[in-house]
Design a protein that fits this description.
The protein is mainly alpha-helical. The protein contains 31 helices and six strands. It binds zinc ion (ZN) (2 copies).
Amino acid sequence: MRFDVPARLSRNHLFTLRWVFCHHSLNRSGEQRCLALLESCTTPTHIHQLLSHLTKTGLSSNLLIITKLISICPQLNAMEIAESMFFQSPIRDAFLYNTIMRGYAQLGDPHKQKSIHFFSLMIKEGVTPNKFTFPFILKACAGLLDINLGLQIHGFVFKLGFYQDEFVGNTLVHMYGCCNGGIDYACKVFDEMPHRRNPVCWSALIGGYVRNGCSSNAIELFRRMQVDGIPPDGITIVSVLSACADLGALELGKWIDMYIERCSIPRTIPLCNSLIDMFAKCGSIEDARRIFDGMPERTVVSWTAIIDGLAMHSHGGEALELFLEMRRSKIQPDDVTFIGVLSACSHAGLVEDGCRYFDSMVDDYGITPKIEHYGCMVDLFSRAGLVEKAFQFVRTMPIEPNTIIWRSLLSACKIHGKLKIGEQISKWLIKFEPNRCSNYVLLSNIYGSMSQWSDKAKVREMMNKQGIKKTPGCTLIELNNSIHEFVAGDKSHPESREIYKMLDEMGKKLKMAGYIPRTTNVLLDIDEEDKEDALHQHSEKLAIAFALLKTPRGTTIRIVKNLRVCDDCHNATRFISKVYYREIIVRDRNRFHRFWRGSCSCNDYW
Ligand code: ZN
Ligand code: ZN
C-alpha cells in the first residue's frame, strides 16, 4: 500500500484554494479568473472541473481560454481533452492550430503524425499558417524522417514568404539533415539564407552531415565556422567529435579537447562520452582513459564507451577489470555494455571468461541476448580456432543466425584452413545475398587459398554477370589539418610520383629484412609477379608511404582503413614498423592494430 496522500492533498488543496479565491475576487473578470485557475491545474481531473465551470459561466467558447487550456494539456497527458476543446471551438485561428500542433510535437515520435494531421486540416479549412507554425511542423517531419512531406511543407514556406525567417530556416536545415537523402537540400537552404547564420543553423547542418555519413564535409564546415568567427556550442562539438571518430582525425580531436578547455565549454556527461568515443576510435586509448578517469560522474554510456574502446585496442584484461569496477560502483550494465565485454574476451582470446559473461548476462542481469551477442560468441570461438565449436553454437542458437554471423564463421574457416566447410557457407551466402560483394570475395579467396584457379575464375565470372563491383579498399590519413584518401593503385594524389618512388624503396628494404609478399590475397587469377604488384599498391601501403615521406622521423603514423586489413598488408606493416622504426596504428573495420618493432598488438590474430 502506498501512502502518498499528503502530496496529493497539497496539490488538490492548492487548486481548491485558488478556486475559492478566484470565485470571490470580484475585481476580476470571469475570463481572468478562469485563466488564473488554469495555471493551477495539475491533473486531468482539475481540467474536467474547470470545464464544467466554463459551461456554467458560458465561457466554454472563449477562444483565449480554449487556447490556453489546450496548451497545458500535453504536460498533463490529456490530449483527448485538448482535441475535444479544439473541435468545440467556434473559431479556429492559426494560433489555436499552432497550439495543438506544438502540443503533439512535444510528445515525442509516436505523436508526430498527429501534428501533421492538424496541419493538413489547417490547410483544408483555409487557415493561413504563420511563421510560428513551421518550426513545429518541420520538427515533426524530421522525427518522421519523411523527406517528401518535408518538401511539401517547404513549398508552403516558400509560397507564404517565410523562407527569410531565421527560425524557419534553421528548422528547415535540421529537417533535411535528418531525412535520408536530404543533405543536399539542407546545404542549399543553408547557403541561400539571407541573414547571418546563427550557431544553431551551423550546428544543424554539421549534425546533418554526420548523420548522413559525410564526416569530412562536417569537419570542413566546422572549419568554415571557425573562420567566420561563430562560436560553436556543446551540441556542435558533440557532432564534430563523432565526425572525428568516424575519420580517425586525432589531431583535430585533440584540438577540440583543448578548445573545450580554453573556451570553458561545460564538460557535460554526453560531451565527455563523445570525447572518450572519439579518442578510442582515433587510436589514442590513453586519452580516452584520461577523459574517463577525470569524469566526476559517469553513466552506463561512459563505462560502455571505455570498455568497448579498450577491447578494440586489445586491452581485454583492462576492459574486464573496468567492468568489475563498474559493477562495484553499482552502475547497471545494459546489453550494449555486454557487447563490449564479450568482444574484450574475444579479442583477448579469453574463451572461458567469454562464456561465463555470456551466461551471467542472461542469469544475473536478465538480458535476452541479441544477434550481436551471439555474433560476439561466434567470433570468440572462431578467433580461438574452435571452428567446430562455433558451428555447434550457431546450430543451437535460439534465433536465426544472420549473414554477419555466417560471414564471421566463414573468415574463421579461411584462417584456420577449414576450406571445405567455408566453401559450403559461402555458396549458401551468395544464394541468400546475391548482391553483396564480400560474399564473392570470400569464396574467391577460399579458392585462392586452395589454389583452385578455375573455380576462382568462375566466381569472378559470376560477379561480372551479376554486375557486382568490389567495394574499393580505402585508407585515410590525417596530415597537417587535412585528410588524405587513398584507394588501391591510386595515382590521383598530387604527390603521386614521390609516393610510388617511396613505395619502391620500401619494397626493397622490406625484402632485405625478410618480408615475403603473401600473394593469395589478390582476387585476380594472374601470374605471381603481377599479383605482387597489385598487393604492393594496396591503399594502406600508399598511405604509409605518404606518411613516411611527410612526417618527421620517429613520429607515430595513424591510418584508418574501411575494410579489414589483408594478411599481406598486416605482415608488411609489421616489417615497416621495424625497418623504419615507427609506431604505426591502423584502424580497420573491426579493431585497432598497434605495430611496433616488428610485431602487432593483435598478435596476428584478427
Ligand atoms: Zn592489403
Ligand atoms: Zn594486427
